[in-house]
Specification:
Blueprint lengths: L1 E7 L2 E10 L4 H15 L3 E12 L1 H16 L3 E5 L3 H9 L8
Parallel strand pairs: 2-3, 3-4
Antiparallel strand pairs: 1-2
Helix pairs in contact: 1-2
């Protein structure tokens, strides 16, 4: 998993490339939590354009990051979600949490 973080005004964008699964979910979760703690953005955008697959551990990482964001008043949004990752998030009902 490749993770790139950048700031754009009041938002922080975290772009993910690869598979969001058991091997990468801890790294993704840590990056999202660090972005929240260090920058306290109004919005945290998780760009999933490069995510080819997302399993239950990836879903858990996203949900835990969302909970941390809500607790500090940050809106966490998933953007550019498509393919099998989108299907998985829709079927599980998770995608609507980020809408």
């Amino acid at each position: 998993m490749k993770i790139v973080r950048d700031r754009d005004g009041d938002a922080v964008r975290v772009a993910l490339t690869g598979e969001l699964d058991l091997a990468s979910s801890d790294d993704v979760r840590s990056c999202l939590e660090e972005a929240l703690a260090e920058t306290r953005p109004a919005r945290l955008l998780v760009d999933m354009d490069g995510v080819a697959f997302c399993d239950s551990t990836g879903i858990e990482a996203l949900i835990l990051a969302r909970q941390a964001a809500v607790a500090q008043g940050t809106r966490l949004e998933l953007v550019n979600v498509h393919g099998i990752a989108r299907t998985t998030l829709e079927i599980t009902g998770v995608l609507r949490l980020f809408s």
